[in-house]
Amino acid sequence: MSWHVTEINKELISARAAAHQMASSIAKAMETPLKRIMMCRPTHFTVSYAINPWMDMRRGVNKPKALQQWDELKHVLTQAGAKVEVMEPQTGSENLPDMVFTANAAVIRGKKAYLANFHHAERKGERFHNKIFLESLGYKCVGSETIPFEGAGDALWAGKNLSTLLVGVGPRTDPNVLPDLRREFDEENVRIVGCNLIDARFYHIDTGFCPLNEEVAMWFPHAFDGVSQWHIKSTTNTIEIDDKEAKNFACNAVVVGKTVVMNRGSERIANTLHRIGFEVAQVDMSEFIKAGGSSKCCTLAL
């Protein structure tokens, strides 16, 4: 009997030590400042077509409210320490309502931007405007014009030194893009890993997975098949969100240093993040969720 109690105590001590070590690693990772962010003013934002399960043209968008929410998101990001580069919609973008979702513009590494080649015809025109703006910021723009790929909406840097690119494949991004990404991001220790998305509601990887830093990420595991779950868990420590939080776009969050900016209404995961040392800023993104996007979708980390 005493042996059994002793073994349980040893396990508890070991678990506490592991938790303390993880918390220390997270705190150290958060010392590195982030980030320059690209946003696009929602001048033409509306729901004029339906290309994901969230879009319903009958609901409509309150455009003044959407602009107010976008302004608030930009303000919160700036207050957290981000430098926001705003792309103003130019002539020719009037029929590109989803251009506000700059996460899909490209995935960035250093001064190279691998541009999106959008799956749906409704968004293909965005590439031209994104390329001009990113080049104006000094980025070398590359990327296939034939293989569907949707930028940092479907490609997130995670793990040690943020050197693993987890790429969501299936709904929007073709797995055939993986070799081209490997060629363009040909750096020592960089890994490119495809992750199969299996739930139509979570059509981009950034709706079901959010790296908080190089040590830990939030995720909704049911958005991925079993093999992809294994790849993610072998890349980073994970904090699971539940179905209700996932449908509230909790994973579609922006991280600036130790501040996590997310849609309002996911108190459980917000409290979890507070306990491990993050600050959480909740903003109302309800108008953008009508189009299937939230905080992260409206930003591109540069």
Automatic annotation (TrEMBL):
Record Pfam families: DDAH_eukar
Transmembrane segments: none
Superkingdom of origin: Eukaryota
GO BP: any one term: L-arginine deiminase pathway
Gene3D superfamilies in the record: L-arginine/glycine Amidinotransferase, Chain A
GO molecular function, one term: arginine deiminase activity
Protein name, UniProt field: Amidinotransferase
Organism annotation: Mesorhabditis belari
